[in-house]
Amino acid sequence: MDAFIIEGGNPLQGEVAISGAKNAVLGIIPAAVLCACSSKIDNVPDIKDVNKMIVILEKLGAEIYRENDTLIINTEKPISYDVSDYEEETGQMRASYYLLGALLGRYRKAIVPLPGGCNIGDRPIDQHIKGFQALGATVVIEHGQVKMEAPELKGAHIFLDVVSVGATINIMLAAVRADGKTIIENAAKEPHIVDVANFLNLMGANIKGAGTDVIKIVGVEEMHGCEYSVIPDQITTGTYMMAAAATEGDILIKNVIPKHMEAITAKLSEMGVVVLEEDDGIRVIGKHPLKAVNVKTMPYPGFPTDLQQPMAVLMTIAQGTSTITESIFESRFKYVDELRRMGANISINSRTASITGVKSLSATKIRTTDLRAGAAMVIAGLIADGETKITEIVHIDRGYENLQENLRNLGAVIRRVSEKDPACL
Ligand code: EPU
């Protein structure tokens, strides 16, 4: 397994361009199988989760061509609705659950293994299933597989008990091909929900209200291929913003949608960081000492749970005591032990971490417990007083394109080593 070695203490300087949004494209790629057609998708990030999704679709029979960040997905020939043989691939990511909605929409049948994904708490898919059942599917879970069949798929009124990104997208994927009107109430409003809906509408779907908590979908009989460009990744943008703030750097982050970053911009400004918005860019200038703040993770437009861990790193060196309350995933504090090993002063009480700032973090060997914890460990390494080794970076590769190269271009001293590398012995 690869590891990162980071020599801390270098302020980030320069420019970085943000790649396409992981959690949007992971809904868009399965959406492309909703018809016998060919779609061209631009701004597709080169990350492990996306590459796995492509492999699964190819194994199901889709023809996929990739050139740089452009993907062409051709499903003119029928593909299989049975994903059960590809449990190894589906088990390595969360978004494999979108094959349920997409295949149910196209074939009225789907067999898909239960998904994997980061171990950050209880992650049921009961709301997805409730939605599919409301649309007329029978759903059986046995031997680790979700088996669905719907002789008829009919529009329905669905009220989500919890605001769920996955359930909102999954229900949209099936409902666009159902007969009649579906209403999703208490829908998630994340930018990636809007992006998947925009893609579906370009394919001929009729979806209104994406980005609000009531989404109305009128099912259509025919859909067709389209050309689409994925939005920039909100969480990757936030990660670079925090890395600049933590290192007292000055960077321009290009190809971003500043509106998507408002919750993060507001919190960083409260900490004393200078954040300047441009048309499709954000400049971040870190000013130390950082001020302590309180953060509570919430569904969009609130502060995203996916940036809770990087934010905690900033708090470890802020003046005073900050709190961070995780209201989405109850086990998203596993990385705290690693930060404590670097000298951070953190106590956890239920879902709230209290973090009292220290002068600096001390470099040591730390490990990555999940994707965003990995991003947090990298930021911790960038500010630590020496050489930090971060192991299990396979989690980071799932969601960040060219992280090491981008950080190097910004002046960080970071290299990737494999266990075979003598530097790691
Ligand atoms: N929930 C249920 N039942 C369901 C679905 C969700 O109780 O059927 C609960 C969850 O347990 C959680 C809350 O609802 O407490 C929100 O979960 P959501 O369904 O929104 O999360 P998800 O679809 O499993 C996606 C992202 C995550 C991101 C969350 C929240 C993808 C592939 N994953 O997960 O991304 O943290 O939304 O925004 O889109 C990441 O990128 O690192 C990541 C973990």
From TrEMBL:
Protein's UniProt keywords contain Cell cycle: yes
Pathway in which the depicted protein is active: Cell wall biogenesis; peptidoglycan biosynthesis
The Enolpyruvate transferase domain, residue ranges: 7-407
Gene3D superfamilies: Enolpyruvate transferase domain
Superkingdom of source: Bacteria
Keywords: Cell cycle, Cell division, Cell shape, Cell wall biogenesis/degradation, Cytoplasm, Peptidoglycan synthesis, Pyruvate, Transferase
PTM annotation (2-(S-cysteinyl)pyruvic acid O-phosphothioketal): residues: C118
Compartment(s): Cytoplasm
Function: Cell wall formation. Adds enolpyruvyl to UDP-N-acetylglucosamine.
Protein name according to UniProt: UDP-N-acetylglucosamine 1-carboxyvinyltransferase
Biological source species: Acetobacterium wieringae
Lineage: Bacteria, Bacillati, Bacillota, Clostridia, Eubacteriales
